């Protein structure tokens, strides 16, 4: 792994976060990673980490063993058609583009390559992503390489491609849903007396603790809820009122609305 050459085409939010995450984990030398962007002055900070920056996609793709496609979905076809003639056989392709299936990517390349789709979430910037990955024409060794790369920036798992839209909703959009919960809790906290900064600190750490209980202890949410809900107590009154107002139902309907928009465009 250490000697693999990586090209990240599109040094935007996700592209830069992946580059930094891989460098921090030390599994590939920074000098083996090239990040491309048309306006390279916007990614000068990567150079301080010894990451190479370039505006030349073809040069970056030519000697890469692994290519991340981190441009927006509407830019992906053009980028693939630009680099395809220079991509060596067996090069691992990892597309981050939402909603573009592996068959289309293969069609744009006009040749068979190991193609992966990866759906991280924005917590990748702090090494806490939940990344779902699907594989197309890849062998086990290639799957392990891609899994290992994303494990440097959070948790990662391989899923069937047919679940990629669901993964997008639950993990990528999910960050926004969770943040809206924290924002709403903060608004409630202000109404019952906290200043906004303190309310946000308390709400955010409380959500982190709740998630860690499930992740570290491996318990079910209801098991943890049972520990907080004293009979005739305040928690169950609040929780039941939230459910009367449609809390779980609103969340489930939101998840389905996002999913339907990906699947049917509406
Ligand atoms: N999982 C998630 O939470 C999210 C996933 N995404 C997906 O990730 C991908 C990247 O998204 P972001 O990083 O947010 O986008 P971004 O817009 O920040 O980054 C894309 C970068 O590609 C560069 N670029 C465009 N054309 C290029 C070219 N021909 N050659 C080299 N560089 C070029 C742009 O200048 C930009 O810096 C998208 O395909 C999007 O669908 C986007 C947002 C959230
Ligand atoms: O909202 C969106 O369309 C993209 C997909 C996943 C996160 N952001």
TrEMBL record:
<feature type="binding site">
    <location>
        <begin position="9"/>
        <end position="14"/>
    </location>
    <ligand>
        <name>NADP(+)</name>
    </ligand>
</feature>
<feature type="domain" description="Pyrroline-5-carboxylate reductase catalytic N-terminal">
    <location>
        <begin position="5"/>
        <end position="98"/>
    </location>
</feature>
<dbReference type="InterPro" id="IPR000304">
    <property type="entry name" value="Pyrroline-COOH_reductase"/>
</dbReference>
<keyword id="KW-0521">NADP</keyword>
<dbReference type="GO" id="GO:0004735">
    <property type="term" value="F:pyrroline-5-carboxylate reductase activity"/>
</dbReference>
<dbReference type="GO" id="GO:0055129">
    <property type="term" value="P:L-proline biosynthetic process"/>
</dbReference>
<keyword id="KW-0560">Oxidoreductase</keyword>
<dbReference type="Pfam" id="PF03807">
    <property type="entry name" value="F420_oxidored"/>
</dbReference>
<keyword id="KW-0028">Amino-acid biosynthesis</keyword>
<comment type="similarity">
    <text>Belongs to the pyrroline-5-carboxylate reductase family.</text>
</comment>
<feature type="domain" description="Pyrroline-5-carboxylate reductase dimerisation">
    <location>
        <begin position="161"/>
        <end position="262"/>
    </location>
</feature>
<protein>
    <recommendedName>
        <fullName>Pyrroline-5-carboxylate reductase</fullName>
        <ecNumber>1.5.1.2</ecNumber>
    </recommendedName>
</protein>
<comment type="function">
    <text>Catalyzes the reduction of 1-pyrroline-5-carboxylate (PCA) to L-proline.</text>
</comment>
<feature type="binding site">
    <location>
        <position position="57"/>
    </location>
    <ligand>
        <name>NADPH</name>
    </ligand>
</feature>
<dbReference type="InterPro" id="IPR036291">
    <property type="entry name" value="NAD(P)-bd_dom_sf"/>
</dbReference>
<keyword id="KW-0641">Proline biosynthesis</keyword>
<dbReference type="InterPro" id="IPR028939">
    <property type="entry name" value="P5C_Rdtase_cat_N"/>
</dbReference>
<dbReference type="InterPro" id="IPR008927">
    <property type="entry name" value="6-PGluconate_DH-like_C_sf"/>
</dbReference>
<feature type="binding site">
    <location>
        <begin position="70"/>
        <end position="73"/>
    </location>
    <ligand>
        <name>NADP(+)</name>
    </ligand>
</feature>
<dbReference type="GO" id="GO:0005737">
    <property type="term" value="C:cytoplasm"/>
</dbReference>
<dbReference type="InterPro" id="IPR029036">
    <property type="entry name" value="P5CR_dimer"/>
</dbReference>
<keyword id="KW-0963">Cytoplasm</keyword>
<dbReference type="Pfam" id="PF14748">
    <property type="entry name" value="P5CR_dimer"/>
</dbReference>
<comment type="pathway">
    <text>Amino-acid biosynthesis; L-proline biosynthesis; L-proline from L-glutamate 5-semialdehyde: step 1/1.</text>
</comment>
